[in-house]
Each structure stands twice: as structure tokens, then as C-alpha cells.
Amino acid sequence: MLQGPHVLGHDKPLIRLSFTSCVVGTVSLPLLGLITCISISSVFHFQDSTDTHCKVTNYLPSISASISLSPECHIWRFCIGLHSAPRFLVAVAYFNFYKGRFSTRFLEWLLSCLNFMCAITENFGLLLLTYVSSNETYRE
Description:
The protein is mostly helical. The chain is built from 6 helices and no strands. Helix 4 packs antiparallel against helix 5 (106-131). One of its GO terms (biological process) is GPI anchor biosynthetic process. It is a multi-pass membrane protein. This is Acyltransferase PGAP2.
């Protein structure tokens, strides 16, 4: 039975992606999503995204206004969702590295667990703030 890269007669991996390009793509997703949302809001929803209750003139939509309208909110959620998956993998990779490095010392092991919990909490907080919108859950 064939195993490894020769499974099903393939000599090469189907997708080859360098770590650097994966990191650059992951880091640039929120920026590209934000630029896309502000552009769409400025072109298609300018009045809705720049209108304020105090009638102050705005020339560009605010970040919260540009990511709260549809389809901009879906673009933003998609970009942050894709951005968060590698962040969870990096948190696990760091934890495994620190766990292997400091397995004999209790204090360092405890700090690596604390670091892992902070990273996971930060990522879940980012997802929670992105996917639970106050506009959608607000009752009038």
C-alpha cells in the first residue's frame, strides 16, 4: 500500500503554500476587509453610513458605520473569521512549544498555560465582538 506523498498516484502535494505567504495573507485580511467595507459604504451607502443624530457633516463613514450595513457586515465577518482560524493554530503551536521547552519547571509551565488561555480568550473575544452585533440584538 502506498503512503505519504504517493497516495493515489500523486507525486507532488496538491497545494503548496509557504508559511510566509500564509502569514501575510492572514495579517492582511482585516485591513483588506476594512478597506473594502469603507469603499462599498462610500459608494453605495454614503448617506446611511455618514448620517449622524447630531447632524454633523461627515466626509467618510466611520469604521463602525461601514461594517454595520449589509453586505459590508458579511464581508467583515468573513475576513475576521478567516483571520481568526490561523490565530488559534498559532496559539496551539506556541503552547506546544512552551510545553515541550518548560515541561520540567512548574512556574514556566504555568505561565505557558496562562499565555495559551490569554491567546484563546483574545481570539474568542474578537470573534464574539465581530459576530454578535448590537444592531441585530437591540430591541426598540
